[in-house]
Amino acid sequence: MKKRLGRHQPNKFLLYKDIHNSALKNLCDTSFVGSHSLVFESIPGEFCLSGEISCLGNILVAVYKILTILDDDEENPLVQTVEYSYNASIQGHNTIFRYDNQDDYHHVSYDDHQDEHHKHEYDWTTGKQNSGSPMWIGDEKSPTLGDVLWELHNWYYENISYLKSPYSYAQLGKGRFSIPTQEL
Fold first, then answer.
1. pTM, whole model, 2 decimals?
2. Which phi-psi region, left, alpha or beta, contains residue 6 (left: φ > 0; alpha: ψ -120 to 50)?
3. Tens of pLDDT, residues 94-103
4. Can you give the residue range of the structural domain that contains 21?
């Protein structure tokens, strides 16, 4: 496994969770994020973070991340994200965008992409993928979950006049994940 550097370098699990919780709290404080069903699950050699985040405008973010354990510290292991997918959609409509590094896992590759980190963009009103999508973003520019939520925050305010229910939150458990809601 190639170690990722910069913002995606290995980190102690408890610090990773603190950063994760702080990013969610900051967005909750803006009222953009309403609730979430994200949970960390311990599996042999890894942690899996999965669930949904409910946002204003009926925006729903499905999250799936695998953090591999890099050392033997049972109390607070060193971890690093090795697989991720952040899918942002309008509930009852279509996907807005998805960041991931999973297409190569599904045996899809793009000739102009130097690594597997990319972004898919869609017309959320039709569900059609935009021209030029997926776009290669590279490991160094691959977003954190906080980055994705702030990008959606900005997208929401740029598109608020087009949204059917701009002041409503998406319902959790109506998408890919059905984990109990946790109010922030």
1. 0.86
2. left
3. 999 999 987 6
4. 6-176
